Each structure stands twice: as C-alpha cells, then as structure tokens.
Amino acid sequence: MDIWPIVGDPIPKGYDGFLIFFDEFNSASRAVQAASYKIILDRYVGPHALHKNTVIICAGNRMEDNAIVNRISTAMQSRLAHFELKVDHVPWLVWAGENKIDYRIMSYITEIPDSLYNFDPDHNDKTFAAPRTWHFLSKLIQNIKTDLFNKLPLLSSVIGETMAREFAAYTAVYTNLPKIEDIKAVPLQTMVPTDPGMLHALIHLIAANMTVATVPQLMKYIERLPIEFITLTLQNSIRRNKALVKEDAIKKWVDVHSPELF
C-alpha cells in the first residue's frame, strides 16, 4: 500500500497532490479494465480511499492507429474527459535543445517541421519518423560527423528509408559550412553564409559547440550574422547550456540590442 496516495498521507513538500498514471490503458483487456474501476471510478484501493488531492490520468493509442487497442467500455467512457494530443515542433525544439539532441536533427526539423512526425497507420515501412525515433537517432549519430549517406541503413532502421534519404541529403549542406575550428580560431575572417538554409544549419552547429570556454571567440563570429539569426543562435545555445546566460560576452550583446529585441 506504500505506493498508493491514500487518505491521511502527507503531501510531499513542494507539491499540490498526487498523480496516478495508467499508461497504455486501452491496450488492457476488458477484464483488466474492469478491475481498475474501483480505483478510477470509485477512487478506492481495496478498503482505502485515495487522497482527495489525487488526479488520475489514462493514456493510450487511438483505434485508427493500428496499435494494440481494445475499446473502452461505455461505463468508463462516460466517466473520463477525453483529449487527443498532437505533435508540435515548436515546443519539441525547445525540449531538444535542453536535451542536447543532435544539431543536424534540430536544424532539419526547424527547416522542415512536418518531418518531426510522419506517422501513417497504413504505412509499409518498418518504422517511421516521430519525436521518439528522432531522439533515438540522435543517440546513434552523435559521434558520426562524416557523410550520413554512408550510414543510410542505420538511419533507415530508425526513421524509415524515405525520411532517412531526405535527412541525409539535407545534412550534406554541412560540408559547405565554415568549420567550427575555423570559426573559433579566426572568427572575424571566417566566411559567413548568406543563404537562409545554410544560416539555419549554421546556428545549430554553433549552438552545439558553444561552451563557457568558447563564448568569447564564437560571439565575435555570431555578431556578424543577421540579428534574427544571432537571437536564434543564442536561444539554442542557452537551451543546451544554461550556464551560458551568465557569460559577459552574451550579457553585453543582450544589453546593447535589447531595444531592438523587445
């Protein structure tokens, strides 16, 4: 009984109550679903009432997703509020920056947002692109800096062949970008691209390499970019490393340009 929040249990400091999460709820058989009625509908575990500050959430796939799903009984349907979640690339990119997702993936999703999630329940490929599979791919390619076309079987195994080819073709742009070593060594002399697509790729490359130690040199180069790309570069860099917000070179730039930004 220690895992259940029941009447009389103290609420942990810093919280407002408790959450019970039934994941893959509609994958359970009708019998198992029925066994959960006492908890979900009556809010009792055995003879013990759940704490009044307890929220219960159930999650599962849709019937049309061709996943393992059993229809929820009408008794349960009418006692739940039903919400359908959709994928949104904007908050995902914020999360991706905070969790150090590979910069090439972040650049690709920024440029082609629909590629974040291309699920078709009737697809014939072995897998598909989704937030989960992009995360998986990021782990696989983080130490691969060469031409990703040489790794198509690996990419295809995670996000499907069509998406793998499109992503590999997109990352070829990185071969034409300035080298990060050159940017750090001679920031005022290294070439700055003018093509918007290359600039988007560049800001993610810089953000992935921005550290407390490299801030002074990289800021000299970043300040040569159009102001909207400077802002995006700093946003992505700070999401990856919160400590950067305290760096003098970044603080100075924000102080000088804040009237243009706000």
Give the SSE layout:
Blueprint: E1 18-22, H1 30-35, H2 37-40, E2 44-45, E3 48-49, E4 54-58, H3 74-77, H4 89-98, H5 103-111, H6 131-141, H7 152-159, H8 161-171, H9 180-185, H10 196-209, H11 215-222, H12 227-240, H13 248-261
Parallel strand pairs: 1-4
Antiparallel strand pairs: 2-3
Helix pairs in contact: 4-5, 4-12, 5-10, 6-7, 7-8, 10-12
Can you describe this structure?
The protein is mostly helical and 262 residues long. It folds into 2 domains: 18-77, no CATH class; 89-261, no CATH class. It has 13 helices and 4 strands. The chain has helices at residues 30-35, 37-40, 74-77, 89-98, 103-111, 131-141, 152-159, 161-171, 180-185, 196-209, 215-222, 227-240, 248-261, and strands at 18-22, 44-45, 48-49, 54-58. The strands form 2 sheets. The protein has a two-stranded parallel sheet. A two-stranded antiparallel ribbon has the order 2-3. α4 runs antiparallel to α5, α5 packs antiparallel against α10 (196-209) and α6 (131-141) packs antiparallel against α7. The radius of gyration is 24 Å and the shape is globular. The N and C termini lie far apart (53 Å).
